[in-house]
């Protein structure tokens, strides 16, 4: 079976979004505790068998590149000495990263938007043109930002066939990870299964992952996959259960999410649809949070371009 590409961090040529976002996330973790972020040590491991076989899908992910671009961005970056590597690992690195408790962070973002005057409206949009009439002003919107995620493949007027779900299954447990977030370049269970451990801030539990199943829309947790996820996490991070195995894991819940992946990568561009400007921002796969501020910055640049262009044309 050919290995499948799993994108958890961009390559250098596409790293603008993350380079611009990491300083903001780091500041929030240090200065805004109510946002739900905290600092953790990421431990990235390349397996010997992946390096020996040249497993392109694993090592093509920017996270597992040798001499990675993010060593210039992340605090306390270091290559892990050979005598510190777990058995079966070829090489790896550590650096200070952040972990987001999304159940806290997303409501915090809503609050920040409300503070600056953003108006919220819930509705059903089957075609992008239907969003033009949803402005709180009661008038037709001048510009619409399309952040429809994985459903960009089904939204009328967009129907981007390059967009697909990358199914991620997790197990959330009460056990603590002691400040480390380990992940490895692959696992022996399946080409579309991966291993990572992340302890969320503010009592959000520890997330054990996971999977990266392309074109899989199933929203239901698979119990067999869940067992494999827990076994991989405990093997990589035995401190989770003090060496007592998966039976000592205290499970909060099982979860499934559909990452909004896209062939060719993220789409951030402007387009006029039915006479109204639309700025697209979707297709972020598994790195949406860690590239969010950089992408928003680009969206703002495109909005400014549209505004200036419309002003020039109105003067003609």
From TrEMBL:
UniProt xrefs under InterPro entries: D-amino_acid_oxidase_CS (IPR006181), DAO (IPR023209), FAD-dep_OxRdtase (IPR006076)
Pfam family, one: DAO
Known cofactor(s): FAD
CC terms in the record's Gene Ontology section: cytoplasm
GO MF assignments: D-amino-acid oxidase activity; FAD binding
Stretches of the chain forming a coiled coil according to its record: none
Keyword annotations of the record: FAD, Flavoprotein, Oxidoreductase
Ranges for domain FAD dependent oxidoreductase: 16-301
GO biological process, one term: D-amino acid catabolic process
Entry's family note: Belongs to the DAMOX/DASOX family.
This protein's name: D-amino-acid oxidase
Species annotation: Cercophora samala
């Amino acid at each position: 079976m050919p290995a499948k590409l799993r994108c958890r961090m961009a390559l250098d040529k596409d790293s603008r979004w993350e380079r611009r976002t990491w300083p903001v996330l780091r500041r929030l973790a240090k200065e805004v505790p109510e946002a739900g972020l905290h600092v953790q040590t990421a431990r990235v491991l390349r397996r010997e068998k992946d390096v020996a076989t040249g497993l392109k899908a694993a090592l093509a992910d920017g996270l597992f590149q040798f001499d990675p671009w993010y060593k210039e961005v992340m605090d306390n970056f270091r290559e892990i000495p050979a005598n510190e590597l777990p058995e079966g690992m070829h090489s790896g690195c550590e650096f200070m990263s952040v972990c987001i408790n999304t159940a806290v962070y997303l409501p915090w973002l809503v609050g920040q938007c409300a503070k600056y005057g953003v108006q919220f409206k819930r509705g059903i949009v089957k075609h992008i043109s239907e969003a033009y009439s949803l402005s709180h002003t009661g008038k037709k919107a001048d510009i619409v930002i399309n952040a429809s995620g994985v459903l960009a493949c089904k939204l009328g007027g967009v129907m981007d066939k390059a967009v697909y779900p990358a199914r991620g299954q997790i197990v959330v447990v009460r056990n603590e990870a002691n400040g480390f977030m380990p992940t490895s370049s692959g696992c022996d269970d399946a080409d579309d299964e991966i291993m990572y451990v992340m302890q969320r801030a503010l009592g959000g539990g520890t997330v054990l992952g996971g999977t990266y199943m392309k074109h899989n829309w199933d929203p239901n947790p698979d119990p067999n996959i869940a067992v494999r996820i827990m076994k991989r996490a405990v093997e990589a991070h035995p401190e989770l259960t003090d060496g007592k195995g998966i039976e000592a894991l205290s499970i909060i819940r099982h979860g499934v999410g559909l990452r909004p992946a896209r062939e060719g990568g993220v789409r951030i561009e402007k387009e006029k649809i039915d006479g109204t400007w639309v700025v697209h921002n979707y297709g972020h796969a598994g790195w949406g949070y860690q590239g969010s501020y950089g992408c928003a910055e680009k969206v703002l640049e495109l909005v400014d371009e549209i505004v200036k262009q419309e002003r020039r044309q109105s003067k003609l």
